[in-house]
Amino acid sequence: MPSSSTVGTPPEPDVTLSHGLKQRHLSMIALGGVIGAGLFVGSGAGIAAAGPSIVLAYALSGLLVMLVMRMLGEMSAAYPSSGSFSAHAERAFGPWAGFTVGWAFWVLLCTAVGLEGIGAAKIVTGWLPGTPEWAWVALFMLLFCGANLTAVKNFGEFEFWFAALKVGAITLFLVLGVLAVGGVLPGTDSPGASHLGELFPHGSEGLVVGLLASVFAYGGLETVTIAAAESENPVRGVASAVRTAMWRIALFYVGSMAVIVTLVPWDAKAVVEKGPYVAALDQLGIPGAGQVMNVVVLAALLSAMNANVYGSSRIAYSLVERGHGPKALGRVSGGAPRVAVLASCVFGFGCVLLSYWRPDDVFPWLLNMIGAVILVVWIFIALSQLRLRGRLEREAPERLAVRMWAFPVLTWVALAGMAAIFVLMAREPGTRVQLYWSGGMTAFLAAVGYAWQRRRLRATG
User: Which ranges form a coiled coil (predicted)?
Assistant: First the structure.
């Protein structure tokens, strides 16, 4: 293993990337990143499993995510980098750690690009039956690949308007929902507590399923710390995004779940079949609610697709800059890592093709392999923060523009929460296989990263 001083050596700064993201871009990326596709698409199954306790599930997982974001914000404000948590892990534990978490996250993001493209294509083919799904996915891929091949401000503009649409839609939904619950929306009667019933209709098992569903709905929050490295003022951008994460999560996730289970019976078939937001709007008699929400879901999927093309290319670029990948991926022209963008898009479209060519074996294996990667990332974030905080206080306390609350107590609380989620995943047959395959990929990458680190040490020793 490398010495302490070697571990603490900062990765090279991202000097060749442009800094074309404005503060308004970063603010909206942070705001829109909270409203991910998982909120609109995956929450129905969680409500059906957990009933009214889905509000508790989202609140608990939301608290965990707030702690993770605070830890990540502390490190990213101190050391802005397009590698984000991968660069922080390397700074804390050595090159093997940065290699492991960086490439695991790259695989996750590239696969997610393909999945989001498939989801978006299904919506469009519903409007235009007879058109091939793969062609729509290819079109979306070309669009966002082209946007990310050019100046970073194009990515920022796409995300700005996607986020504005998502924020506007969910804010309007919350306003209408609160008015209806309060009995002041014209043409509707307040349901009171008539739809809430028993808090745990399926017992603790239902809460567990809802908790696991809610944890993975928060994916995407990390993008803002990656994007901050290319903003006009990285430290200010990260600090602002992290400090406002709490009310965003409470309002958009926990608030909307509370409105939905109050307005609609949790066991209504429409919650799963149409989606919880459409079911709630139908309950209010809003005309064309289904099509309106389809537009919003499409925007959420395309937004996530764009953000993941961006995030995967920057993670790959950062890894190569730190010596953890083929040098060709690190080539920058026009302020953008264009080869990394192309490689990420090709990998993502390859996942799409696998979903058509090998839907029963290779594609499910790929999905299982990325199933628990986000938890692996969170664990690396917490462990890195534990190690780097003391070093920062000794060597550069002025860099602590963002501080983790009640350190180190809440960092350990967050780690305990992550361990509990792993235990819950191991208990559930549907998530146990994800745990095994994600763990296997992480162990493989750690072994390769450690061997690569040892080789580099011998070469320089």
Answer: none
